[in-house]
TrEMBL record, chain A:
Family the entry assigns: Belongs to the cytochrome b560 family.
Keyword Nucleus belongs to the record: no
Keywords, alphabetical: Heme, Iron, Membrane, Metal-binding, Transmembrane, Transmembrane helix
One of the GO BP terms on file: tricarboxylic acid cycle
InterPro entries found in the cross-reference section: SQR/QFR_C/D (IPR034804), Succ_DH_cyt_bsu_CS (IPR018495), Succ_DH_cytb556 (IPR014314), SuccDH_FuR_B_TM-su (IPR000701)
Name recorded for this polypeptide: Succinate dehydrogenase cytochrome b556 subunit
Pfam families the UniProt entry points to: Sdh_cyt (PF01127)
Cofactor(s) recorded in Swiss-Prot or TrEMBL: heme
Subcellular location: Membrane
Lineage, top ranks: Bacteria, Pseudomonadati, Pseudomonadota, Alphaproteobacteria, Hyphomicrobiales
Regions that span the bilayer: 29-52, 64-83, 112-131
Amino acid sequence: MADAGAKASRPLSPHLQVYRWPVTMLMSILHRFTGGALYFGTLLLAAWLIAAASGPRAFEIVNAIYGSWFGLLVLFGYSWVLIHHLLGGLRHFVWDVGAGFSKPARDNLARLNLLGSIVLTVLLWAAVLLFR
Amino acid sequence: MKTALGRVRGLGSAKSGTDTFWLQRLTGVFNAVFVVITLGIVIALAGRPHAEVIAALRHPLVALPIGILIVSGVIHMRIGMKEIIEDYVHGGPKVLAVVANTFFAVLVGASTLFALLKISFGV
Ligand code: HEM
């Protein structure tokens, strides 16, 4: 007869709510999330170029919005999303050539993806704020 | 008379599949290169006066990488979003969403390229 303890330790079927999130799963979701965010984020570059082509008045308005604290916050978020997705894409290319499939390699690539994106984003903005 | 292979060739779910997979990788590589270049350009020009920005954007070595990123980017984002739509949206709304996706990609690509060329060739 199975007692309560044995019953509790039975494996559960994997499902989003009961699954202990492996870092690779988080990165998979983040790659899709950042891809979707970049999809709409393209409008930021589009608006900047279209305003520049329209003339000084339109360009000043866009510049003022992008330079406001809210604009800078959006641009900061956008830059992290872009860098995270870029590194995530490179991770996919590693797999595409047939490397990086072992458990430690997968986990390390995932951690490197997240850590690298945060470090590079902070460094980028530090460089911009210091030298521009 | 057709061979067994001839009868099924081109009859996959969407008659393609590996093509879009490959194109997503190819545009991904292009994006990686030209995102870095464009990021540098945009940072260098951020907050500068209009005339200075226009003068810089007129240079072919500045306009070309941005133009390549736009083309590669909209192809890439269209494929990516189509895949997301196909995973979560079904039936009639799916058809609408897929059409809207292409519409959005074409609109963004065309208007941004037009702006870039307008600057390049002067007003
Ligand atoms: C910066 C360089 C970039 C690289 C190296 C890259 C690479 C990739 C790769 C390899 C995939 C396929 C992932 C998979 O099959 O699961 C992907 C998906 C995607 N990318 Fe990119 N990409 C880049 C930039 C962009 C940009 C700028 C956008 C949008 C404007 C974008 C939007 C998307 C979308 C929407 C997906 C689909 C996500 C999904 O299916 O989960 N990517 N990217």
